[in-house]
């Protein structure tokens, strides 16, 4: 019955069930779709606009909520119980980790520094019309050291792996041909970082990051994620 209802609703929107499934799979796999990321994501984002209510209703059945930023054209999923920046939800409280990403300590440090640099650019009016902030890698390295007393990975391979991970999360953009042994390359901080790191977490930058008891691992593909206002794990 649900399948019939969805098929009927999609037909009125000029969409096939296969197209709806492709959109849902992409959202659940990546946790985010940014129209500016690629032609594929532009197509999927435009498809989302055609069936927004259906996607929201379908995912609401399993407690997943959606943040849709119409200004900067991105959609991010949040697992059950997650805090969504700018949206209160007193009816849902976290009961476990759900399918949130567990970044390792290096990733946490860089993400927080990126968020702080983005906030600084907002205050200084250094954000472009797409909501992006361009910073040199050297500035990011200085921010990480000043704010968290940490450093970027030493080797090019480790740096490339780290920034590829953050690109998968749609937090930054960079030229994939760049030589990460140099601090002269530039990164573009994406506006979706404001939906990934809450103000509460941003305000804890003066506190030391906890050390993990076990080494964290980095997944090959990102899941839906955000930092809530708990201390980073």
Structure keywords:
233 residues; mainly alpha; 3-stranded antiparallel beta sheet; disordered C terminus
Short description:
It contains eight helices and six strands, in the order H-H-E-H-H-E-E-H-E-H-H-E-E-H. With 233 residues, it is mostly helical. The relative contact order is 0.16.
- Helix amount: 40-55%
Structural class by sheet pairing and helices: mainly alpha
User: Could you give the count of β-strands?
Assistant: 6
**Order of SSEs, N→C?**
HHEHHEEHEHHEEH
Largest beta sheet: strand ordering: 1-3-2
Note the topology:
Elements lengths: L1 H11 L4 H14 L1 E3 L4 H12 L1 H9 L4 E5 L4 E5 L26 H20 L8 E4 H12 L7 H13 L3 E2 L12 E4 L9 H4 L31
Helix pairs in contact: 2-3, 5-6
Can you offer a commentary on this structure?
The protein is elongated, with a radius of gyration of 18 Å. The chain contains eight helices and six strands; from the N terminus they run ααβααββαβααββα. With 233 residues, the protein is mostly helical. The longest helix is centred in the middle third of the chain and has 20 residues, at 105-124. The N and C termini lie far apart (42 Å).
């Amino acid at each position: 019955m649900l399948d019939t209802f969805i098929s009927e609703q999609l037909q009125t929107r000029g969409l096939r069930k296969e197209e709806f499934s492709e959109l849902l799979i992409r959202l659940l796999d990546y946790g985010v779709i940014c129209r500016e990321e690629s032609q594929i994501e532009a197509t999927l984002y435009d498809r989302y606009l055609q069936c927004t209510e259906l996607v929201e209703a379908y995912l609401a059945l399993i407690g997943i909520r959606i943040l849709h930023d119409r200004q900067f054209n991105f959609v991010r999923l949040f697992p059950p119980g997650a805090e969504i920046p700018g949206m209160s939800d007193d009816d849902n409280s976290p009961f476990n980790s759900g399918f949130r990403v567990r970044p390792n300590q290096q990733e946490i440090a860089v993400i927080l520094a990126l968020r702080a640099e983005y906030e600084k650019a907002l205050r200084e009016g250094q954000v472009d019309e797409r909501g992006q902030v361009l910073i040199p890698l050297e500035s990011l390295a200085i921010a990480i050291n000043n704010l968290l007393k940490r450093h970027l990975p030493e080797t090019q391979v480790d740096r490339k792996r780290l920034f590829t991970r953050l690109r998968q999360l749609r937090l930054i953009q960079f030229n994939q041909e760049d030589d990460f042994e140099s601090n002269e390359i530039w990164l573009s901080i994406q506006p979706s970082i404001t939906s990934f790191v809450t103000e509460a977490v941003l305000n804890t930058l003066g506190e030391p990051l906890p050390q993990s008891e076990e080494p964290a691992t980095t997944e090959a593909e990102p899941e839906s994620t955000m930092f809530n206002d708990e201390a980073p794990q």
